[in-house]
Amino acid sequence: MGRWGGNIVTRARWDPAGFVAQTSQFVAGIDQDIVIFGYAGQRTADVSTGIRTTDVAWLYRYLGRITDSQLRAALEASGANDEDNAAFAESLRERILQLGRVCGAVSPAPAAVSPTKTGDESTG
User: Fold this and answer.
1) Which among 67, 112, 75 has a CA at the least distance from the CA of 93?
2) Which tens digit of pLDDT belongs to each residue from 74-87?
3) Which of 7, 17, 45, 116 would disulfide-bridge 49, Cβ 3.0–4.6 Å?
């Protein structure tokens, strides 16, 4: 996971800072019923064109159930150290919430998201 880009020079693998920096651009908007993604890279049209809000709603039914603990465990299993894990997990949660917002499953972004609203079922 890292920064997206159109070629080897502009994209990066395992780049927490790049991934975090692009999170706010993950979902760029909606044009009628089509979700517009900020992603730009190799084969952009193949992976991000023509995705409807109903498609996102289907996916969100599953992604929205993933807890923060599960995200962190998956990142740890992938080799993330504590710092990278925190950065990636927070950004992944925000990207999942963005998907939820475009399909109407999540309210528009609040000023601050409390930990109880992230789907994390753990208590510590």
Assistant:
1) 67
2) 999 999 999 999 99
3) 45
- Side-chain-side CA neighbours of 39 within 13 Å: the count stands at 16
Question: Does the pTM exceed 0.90?
Answer: no
Residue with tokens 């990207």: 95
Rounded-to-5 percentages of helix, strand, coil across the chain: 45, 10, 45
CA distance 38 to 59: 18
List helix spans (H) across 24-67.
44-48, 53-63
- For the record, the structure tokens of 108 come out as 């528009």
The label of the residue with tokens 């999170």 reads 23
